[in-house]
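REQUEST
  id: r-88c1
  op: predict_structure
  target: Peptidase inhibitor family I36 protein
  payload:
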Amino acid sequence: MRRIVAVLATATALALCTALPATAADTPRTSGTGEQCVADVATKKVTCFDTFREAAKAGSEGAVTTADNPAELKAAMGAMAREDWGNGRTWLGTASWDAGHGGDSLYFWGDRTCLTGNGEDYAWDLGGSRWNDQISSLTPSSGCWITLYQHSQWGGSMSDPFKSPAADLGWWNDRTSTISFG
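RESPONSE
  id: r-88c1
  status: 200
  body:
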């Protein structure tokens, strides 16, 4: 009888353990959380939002209030006939957590457009942040070319400049620690 009780107790304990949901620490993170983050290259401050509209409004310092996706933001830029918003804010480009421009997105904003091709206008070191080695797709904007570096502080391998959107970064997928815009 004791043996049956012990077996039942063990089976009940195992059932309870498997029925309990995993904690966040137990669940591997394969993607971002869907956050839309604004990175101000002048202040080196990142602020994240639940929606693209909130991120576009914050990044443009209120100049764009109705864009719900990057295509609408580009349309607003075209309607304004310039890529800065009259307040000195310029959308430089976007890095996305997942391939195909999915998952979390990091929208880089600066005070002016890039001098295309010089690679020296702006830079962002991702080392020490949750974005380090997590970028899987890119979208350059405002005439900026984006160059990726394998390690922090421009170390390791350097990519060729990305001049147009890249839905899949190939070898660079999840291997970027510094981004430059030029």
